[in-house]
Design a protein that fits this description.
By secondary structure, the chain is α/β, with parallel strands linked by helices. It has one domain (29-242): Rossmann fold. 49% of the residues lie in helices and 13% in strands. The chain has helices spanning 13-27, 44-55, 62-72, 75-85, 92-102, 121-133, 148-156, 196-219, 232-244, and strands spanning 32-37, 58-61, 111-115, 140-145, 158-160, 167-169, 223-227. It has a 5-stranded parallel beta sheet with strand order 2-3-1-4-7, sandwiched between helices. It has a two-stranded antiparallel ribbon with strand order 5-6. Strand 5 (158-160) and strand 6 (167-169) form a beta hairpin. The radius of gyration is 20 Å and the shape is globular. It holds the Pfam family ADK. Keywords: Kinase, Nucleotide-binding, Transferase.
Length: 245
């Protein structure tokens, strides 16, 4: 047994029962291999944990996986680190290889949610090739469709109290005194990524790179457009409709 493994007798009975119940519930769930696509602020981050739990999937965020592979010093992680140290982009083949590795984990047995990849049509094609070799394919691509102007209102109105992490929104959840934290009265700040200029360039990059990916999956008949401007609960029910069909 590996050093990091926990002896079963040391695990509380309630934890064992919870895990057994989870596995029992998961055994009846259909396998799902999903991709989430959407611009920053479209609500992917709100919906993906719920989809993950409902369908017993693993969540594969490419940035996190790259960091984990580098930290674990896997052969692909070492190659990725070499590229990053030179200031180069990690190649598509490497990223697909890291996804391939991550998919073999027990937590990915029922399938996965891919978030942040593919960003280009070439990446989508490489992903399809890798899955084909395994005899699987992407089941559904959830496109969190939302108008740029709504995103701008959502994101540029966000303010944060740095030391506590409390968040506010000038329109949807304003502080009692503009610009000040309700509890401490300290000044609120805006994240660098939440300014109109940064958002504009991120949205431009998203449309330029990822719109073709949306068309690519649309032509395969596996794309589902979600009304991401709706409140989160309504988006959740739309997601459930799409995934149960």
């Amino acid at each position: 047994m590996a050093d990091s493994a926990v002896a079963l007798e040391d695990v509380a009975s309630v934890d064992i029962m919870t895990e057994l119940l989870r596995r029992f519930k998961c055994s009846s769930k259909p396998d799902k291999r999903l991709i989430l696509i959407g611009p920053p602020g479209s609500g992917k981050g709100t919906q993906s944990p719920m989809i993950k739990d409902d369908y017993c999937l693993c969540h594969l965020a490419t940035g996190d996986m790259l960091r984990a592979a580098v930290a674990a010093k896997t052969p692909l992680g070492i190659k990725a680190k070499e590229a990053m140290d030179k200031g180069e982009l990690v190649s598509d083949d490497l990223v697909v290889g890291i996804i391939d590795e991550a998919m073999k984990k027990t937590s990915c047995q029922k399938g996965f949610i891919l978030d942040g990849f593919p960003r280009t049509v070439v990446q989508a094609q490489k992903l399809d090739e890798m899955l084909e070799k395994q005899g699987t394919k992407i089941d559904k691509v959830l496109n969190f469709a939302i108008d740029d102007s709504i995103l701008e209102e959502r994101i540029t109105g966000r303010w944060i109290h740095p030391s506590s992490g409390r968040t506010y929104h000038t329109k949807f959840a304003p502080p009692k005194v503009p610009g000040l934290d309700d509890v401490t009265g300290e000044p609120l700040i805006q994240r660098r990524d939440d300014t109109p200029a940064v958002l504009k360039s991120r949205l431009e990059a998203f449309h330029r790179q990822t719109e073709p990916v949306i068309h690519y999956y649309g032509s395969k008949g596996i794309l589902a457009n979600l009304p991401a401007e709706k409140p989160p609960k309504e988006v959740t029910s739309e997601v459930q409709k799409v995934l149960s069909s």
